[in-house]
Amino acid sequence: MIRVFLVVLVLALAACSSQEEADYKQAQKAIAQEHYRIALGYLDRVIKRNAPTNFPLEAAREAARISFFEIKDFNKAIQYHHFIVLHSPNEKERLESQKQIAEIYFNNLQNYQQAIIEYSKLQQMPHTDMEAAQYKMNVARAQYYQNNFFQAESEIDTLLKLKSDDNTRFSALMLKGNILVAKKDFVKAAEIFKELIKSYPEKAIQENVALTLAVCYEENLDFKSAVAVLEEHRSKYKPPEYIELRIKRLQERMKNAPGAKGFRK
User: Fold this and answer.
1) In 3D, which of 1, 3, 53, 2 has the Cα closest to residue 23?
2) Contact 61/90 with Cβ under 8 angstroms?
3) Taking each helix axis from N to C terminus, what angle separates 112-123 and 91-103, rounded to the nearest 10 degrees?
4) Quick check: 138 and 115 in contact, CB under 8 A?
5) How far apart are CA 240 and CA 230, in angstroms?
6) CB atoms within 10 A of CB 71
7) Number of other CB atoms surrounding residue 213 within 10 Å
8) What is the DSSP string of 171-184?
9) What are the pLDDT tens digits along the chain (265 aa)?
10) Could you give the count of Cα atoms lying within 13 Å of 36 in the half-sphere of its Cβ?
């Protein structure tokens, strides 16, 4: 009886493997013809069987690629990456798929609440200090986009204590400045933007930090400082007519507000 059972089991597994291989080959033919949705149908059949062969993982990898790059169905791409996270024996592959899940929620679906959850999972997986800083950065951005300014600032403050490269640090300080602007704390925001201009002059020009600093001064009715910033940096921005127009408008406001004496304490 045992021998008969083993023979039946082997035959069943062979039949299953043969069907999976056939479906996978049909999917490859459909992909070659750019019939991507038909291909996904075959790949889904392989994945749903989830037989103890290499085909389900290969199908999930191919399906994730097609869903993301070819048909832009980001929710389906997430499903396939979840399958890889759950079933791949390769730790590096599981980590990369989890990164893809978080990034799709953040960048492609703008589902910031779910992105925060997925980045939190990444922080529980093996990572470097640089990766930890990037995860914190994206969590802070997600909180900021949801107007959760306290949580966003808390994430940034933690990030700034970590080891990170200049690009990440610049982005973190820039975001903190924008958070402070959103909270209407223009004095503290201005200090951060001044630090960015001093420490990262080239990147500050690319990100128009001087213009943002001028806005901070203007919002706090310090028109003189706003004009001074624009005049100092006018040669670095094009077209120059825009800066000239900003300066003239500020000078008009200064004339109409003679009591403006700088930052109000």
Assistant:
1) 53
2) no
3) 160
4) yes
5) 10
6) 14
7) 26
8) HHHHHHHHHHHHTT
9) 666 444 444 444 444 568 899 999 999 999 999 999 999 999 999 999 988 889 999 999 999 999 999 999 999 999 999 999 999 999 999 999 999 999 999 999 999 999 999 999 999 999 999 999 999 999 999 999 999 999 999 999 999 999 899 999 999 999 999 999 999 999 999 999 999 999 999 999 999 999 999 999 999 999 999 999 999 999 888 888 989 999 999 999 999 886 545 555 4
10) 13
Long-range contacts (CB closer than 8 Å, 24 or more residues apart) made by 192-199: 196/170
Q: Token digits for 57?
A: 């993982």
Residue 186 in tokens: 């223009």
Give the chain's length: 265
pTM equals 0.88
